[in-house]
């Protein structure tokens, strides 16, 4: 088995608000292996996005240990690709220039990789289009290509398909799986969509709020491509749903680890 | 009842409107109003109701224009006026851009420079003219300096505004992709501030023309502003009009030039186009 690439241990995060301190993350522990696709699911306020921002290095104000390839994370870098809920493209750049960003398209190897990635995210023909000409799904695919160009060790996705309609979303999920199967990029995928979590993840990390903690981690053994209508899929989905229904009752275990 | 009748009428009117307009080529649409007004003006003047010194006919103004042009006098005036306006604009605009960038990027520059500049900005420029004359006399220097001072503020304010208007979300993206400081400036902040900077340049050009006339009405013996002032003294109203038309034409041309740049550089903008 491959070694753990990303290790989170005893991670605590508090916010201070006018009405006192709020514990956003409580003793989070998580190990991710090279090439895994982890989905993190939980209701709003459970700290799933906060966890992702910490791993990205966008938030360095935390206690505990967050290590990528053995190195403590202390700031953003290209090793940690990030996809936001919005595409966040530069409106004055064409699709190909958005993907290239601060890298020069004049370099043959960059040009070649950009062309490859545009094909991978199924945007061939739109190289010269401006963001305003793209649909939400297309723009988000540009953002994915932009992150992949930097060959990140881990790709962090923060509810990337949350703003898309149901049809576009399921198409995007297939595109993402396709990319994952071809590139084997390690991914941490935050979502609030149960279906999405079970459809995509090798493992589903379930989080609960007040304070934000990991309630349970469920391994999904179903082979890809998964059939949503299949009985085994529905059973697993049901299992996750039941976990969250239990939360309404007072939580018994505050188990942080896996 | 009356309400519905009004409605029907307005619908038919709007349907008819594009009909006659569509017969005229599109680039000429902007000319319809001026041409109609000049035609009425010429007609009324021809009837002899208006005194020549009060409002000369367009044909008289045109004749005066060609006489002045033929003698070469007109071009001398235009040349010196253009020179003053452009020099002042370049001086003020460049300084405005540089200081706007400095204040936009640096907290220290913002805290130390901006309050003073904002205070200076509220002083009506015309109030400074006596001071300029006392300090620098009536020469070219004080004219160019006055225009420069006026051209400075629009570029300065809008550059500053544009830089601070950069989307924090895009800034986060540049951090993740490890843009260098220089790359953040050249590849994120300047492009996103460009619409504001160009707006500043357009406003600044307008102010330059305005102050040019003011500057040329201080003692001088050349320039379009002088030509107007001189014609007024001798009641040559048609020459006053020639000067005004010249300002309108040159002003319009310079504005169009900047708009052309906008159209090329800001193609990406997703805004309401009417």
UniProtKB/TrEMBL annotation, chain A:
The keyword NAD does not apply. Pfam families: ABC_tran. Residues 6-236 form the ABC transporter domain. GO terms for molecular function: ATP binding; ATP hydrolysis activity. It comes from the Bacteria. Keywords: ATP-binding, Nucleotide-binding, Transport. InterPro entries: AAA+_ATPase, ABC_transporter-like_ATP-bd, ABC_transporter-like_CS, ABC_transporter_ATP-bind, P-loop_NTPase. This is ABC transporter ATP-binding protein. It comes from Paenibacillus paeoniae.
TrEMBL record, chain B:
CDD domains: TM_PBP2 (cd06261). The keyword Transmembrane helix applies. GO terms for biological process: alkanesulfonate transmembrane transport. The keyword Amino-acid biosynthesis does not apply. Keywords: Cell membrane, Membrane, Transmembrane, Transmembrane helix, Transport. Signal peptide: none annotated. Its main location: membrane. It is found in: Cell membrane. Pfam families: BPD_transp_1 (PF00528). The chain crosses the membrane at residues 31-50, 85-106, 118-138, 144-163, 197-219, 239-261. It comes from the Bacteria. GO terms for cellular component: plasma membrane. It is a multi-pass membrane protein. Residues 78-257 form the ABC transmembrane type-1 domain. Belongs to the binding-protein-dependent transport system permease family. This is ABC transporter permease. It comes from Paenibacillus paeoniae.
